[in-house]
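Dataset card, provenance and construction

Sequences and ligand SMILES were collected as paired inputs. For each pair, a complete structure of the chain with the small molecule in place was predicted and serialized as structure tokens. The example below shows a pair involving zinc ion. Curators did not alter the output after generation; any descriptive sentences attached to a record were derived from the structure itself.
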Amino acid sequence: MRVTKVSTHFLILLMAMHLAYQSLEAAEKWPDGNKIAISLSYDDALDSQLDNALPALNQRGLKASFYIVPLSDAFKERIEEWRQLAQQGHELGNHSLFHACLSGKPGREWVQPTNALDDKTVQAMVNEITVANTLLTSLDGYSEHTFTPPCFDQMVKDGNYVEAVKEQFVGVKSLEDPNFAAFIGPSDISSAQIINFIEKQPANIRMINVLFHGVGGDHLVTATAEHAKFLDYLVANKDKYWVDTYRNIMLAKKRSAQ
Ligand SMILES: [Zn+2]
């Protein structure tokens, strides 16, 4: 009886080991070893990103993705700085031309009636996204870009516009398999809370998206010191994490699938 019990436990252990091995086999093999890919993104083209986030990234040699809204004042007035940022190896990403979001959701009072996604058509959004990509190409010289749908909204009045534009991109944030990628959008939280989120992810998660907005200013703010502490953590744990632009991570994912 005792022997049976032990062997049952042994069998369960073997099965668990087999499953663990299988998930290891299925795991993404990134170019920089079998690490967890980290995509740092900064949405909406904000002054505080050029003033606070960018110097902090450059000081540590980390590359990130900046999702541009050409309508933003900080984009219009500082275009040369955004161009230089791309030349430094960071990514300029598509975040649409006008940042249209659904107006009916809670907390969406800021959505202007002329720019509500509810009233747009798929074709209008396809045009908007296409022009935004052309604008990015004229700035950074790249033909391949990635997209973060504003507010992660997808539906317009006659369908799903994100489905209609996804083939224009090497990656679209929010469309990844949730068994592969995790998301956190820091706002008024500490570096410890971001780190805790990253460390508690299950082993099947091979990529973590950290979506910042303001850093030390603007909206959905992460304090400059907390942002810096989080970057320090990533640098101190380079053996565990591969930090790169979303474009580079998605291109590596495509290559590994071939
Ligand atoms: Zn946005």
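Derived descriptions for this record:
Confidence is low (pLDDT under 50) at residues 1-26.
The pocket of zinc ion is lined by residues 43-44, 95, 99, 150 (CB under 6 Å).
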